[in-house]
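Translate sequence into structure tokens.
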Amino acid sequence: MANDSTITILKRLLANISFKDRNKFLFAIIIVAIGNFAIAYAPKMAGNIIDFLSAYVQNGYQFFDMNYLIFMILVIAALYIFGNIATIVSNKIMLDLSRDVSFKLRRRIVKKLNKVPINYLDVTPSGDILARLTNDMITVERLLETDLINLIAQFLVIVLVFIMMLVVNMKLALIYLVALPVQFLLMKFITSKTRNQFKQQQSAVGELNGFMADIFNNHTLIKSYNMENKSIETFDEINKKFYKSYLLSKFFSGFILPVSLIINNVAYICLSIFGAFLIITGDFTIGGFLSFLLYGQMLTAPLTAIANAMYLVQSDFSSAERVFEVLDVDEEENDDIKKDLDVDKVNGGITFVDVDFGYVPKKQLFHEVSLDAKPGMVMAIVGPSGAGKTTLINLLMRFYDIDGGKILIDSENIEDLKRTELRKAFGMVLQDSWIFDGTIAENIAYGKENATMEEIVKVAKFVGCDTFIDTLPDGYDTFISEENSSLSVGEKQLLVLARTILDNPKILILDEATSQMDTRTEAMVTRAMEKLMKDRTTFIIAHRLFTIKNADKIIFMKDGDIKEVGSHDELLKLNGLYAEMYRNASS
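Result follows.
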């Protein structure tokens, strides 16, 4: 019933079991096999008891051996007890293994997300990634914890019961020799129809998660634009997609159990008729026939369990496939063999030389872009939306690699440097001040391991956020979070500035760092940034042109090209695109 994809996924799951734990997994399989063999042998013993009692009756109630009867009954009880204990032990082993594998897979996914190109995270909904880390991983745990071992156990029962049927009576066993392959082929056909539906179902769950996250994060915006009905309509569309895939998967998988029961019941009827005929002709004993009937009944339970389990197992493997899709994403080029960068010796000179770049192959955004920033210069980047301002920064930080030309930092080609080393030279402040769950001190110290309290307080005073920190109940130990914090937008941004200066970067990137602030708050944060920018090469992306008048150079970008470069006064005299934008902004 397992196709090549299923077998491949199973191999990949088992590959996450350590060599030491593989012995445990093998032991779980062996003990399940032994336990099921014990259960499968019990009906044969029951048949022997019936034949023993029949012989006693046929001999005129003579030569009755009570000790033998008691022994046989105890042996049957022991077989059933041992079989069930073996199941409990194997389930406990698989529980431990599933937790270990899921822990490793989650850790691998998180590590993977730190290595994938930025464009993967740009185009993949966060809700879908979260669904793979949570919903899909819980389903994979279920596969390893119960579904897989139960499926193996039920298959073992079928194999062992069929072997015992051959031992008891080969002629009757031929009935199931025909029935079982027919049943498995039909189940394989049905499950092949459900696999894709289960995958679509899990994808729809990820889409639902992402949409709900957007609703919760932007509920104020939705209400302010009276878009509640529109959001409900969008939710209904996604929900219908989920409902359709769920309905189809349930519809097809719903055939498995009825088909299984029909074939098994037909085989059982044939068994009863043919077995009775063999008894009448003297070719079969009553005890043997009873054993065979018990084996026929024993096949019903595992076949039914397999039929029911196939729905869950298909869902399990669809989730596992989605997990491995993340792990199979191409990573950023491994640059461990590239050169280190001595950050302490970086002066901060940046040069773009004929840089070509496009987010989409064969669709260039940058065409031979060149610019030169001397150490300590303040470079302001302006232009209309979509001009390529943020793209320029992304290339500088090597979030994306260029298609042509080169970018130099102090005459070193950044493509020859390790990304981790390169990024140590930069400090970045974005318009969204990212605050995580933790204390004020922990938020400031983020990015610098083993930062001392003295260093934290020093940078807080430097940017001016010590004033409001001292008014908080627990000072630097005050717990804050993005969702639940009494800090204003400006106060959060000051914390980010303190975090940035703590690492003492040689090059600063300020991307719309004051765009969401009122005039008073902006003035306060701007003063802090001016301190931060002193003696550092700085790139500023800004829409408010009055904030960049004092920049050493202003770069006006449009359609991926640098159209004009110069100081504020020089560009006004040029009376070009920048001058037009400045006049429109001032009017």
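Note: The mean pLDDT is 78.
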